[in-house]
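input
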Amino acid sequence: MTDHEAAPTHPDRRLSTKEAAELLGVKPETVYAYVSRGQLGSRREPGGRGSTFDAKEVAALARRNRREPSASSTIGGELSVRTQITLIDKDRYFFRGVDATELAARHSYEEIAEWLWTGRLRPGITFAAPDASVAVARRAVDALPEHSGPTDRLRVATIAAATADPLRFDLSEDAVLGTARTLIPTLVAALPPLRRDHRDEGPLARRLWGRLTGRAPDAASLRVLDTALGLLIDHDLAASTLAVRVAASARAHPYAAVSAGLGVLEGPLHGAASGLAHRLLLDVLDQGSAAPVVADELRAGRRIPGLGHRLYPGEDPRARALFTLLEEVPDATPALAAAHDVVATTARHTPLHANVDLALAVLTVASGMPASAGETVFAVARTAGWIAHALEEYEERPLRMRPSGRYVGARPPQPLPR
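output
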């Protein structure tokens, strides 16, 4: 038994600073550092000369500190965070050890979300949004300028929904799961419908469809959309997911954590990438061939959108799964042919495979959706993954996402500026 694995104390008693330090295996000064960083609570007893600490809280901190390194570390110069959610390996990816493409082929978006959050499947589950939450989110979204993008709307809807939830600061697992199951349908319901006869009922994919296009849905197209939502639900520590974990590390409530993810998602190198692929396919369909369109992109010094992925040397498994389903959608034939033409044309010089952005673009072009629709699909889908990461981060040491800056400026002391 090591010094910091001393015999357990009675859970209801208070520990002195010396006892807390011994249990934690640190100096007394470090105990107060834990207090200042919000990792440990302290209390001064009436008439006492020093602070006392809750035995259960100290024991929990000691257990966290004894774990194998789970805090942020660096591997090969990159940030590394331990997670049990998603593994990407050899052109495949897995949710809690299960092949993600197989999950998406057999289960709805809501079912996959539950699997990601809890490790349990709940067949047939659907998410419902509270009327009060939807009302306040819609009012906020309706007040935005007409040119507002989908991520703007979703971010505003998230913040508005938070104001309607007085229990948002409850970070217990049950409370966060309750938030997740209502926030996602609230975000969808807050978006303006494009069909007069649209109804907010049934699976989330059906409800989202009516906010992406005015066309009536068919079974094959709805299946593609639902599968896309399931495939996009998480993808390890993407930039937006890291932002969510940083917010959760500071114990931001789940609405705030999701808002942090949406702020990062809007970049053209992340959630908005499918919009660039959408416009590319429209140009190819207009020109009748990918060759002049690809040539113009390369001449302008731009990379071809929808091709290549830094985590997949081969084909993006998400794109492969969606392309297979898109072959069953009659209206998708021209856009699908255009996408294959782009890949074949580019492969003459650079052997890049299609990624999920190109597959999403085929769906949005074929369904008469705007270029921004793929971004909406991405954001709604990924919200469930962000909640999963927030839940995981709430179990870790608070404020662990605090890297040290490497100062490269002028060395002090410098004279005062004039």
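quick obs: The longest strand covers residues 51-54.
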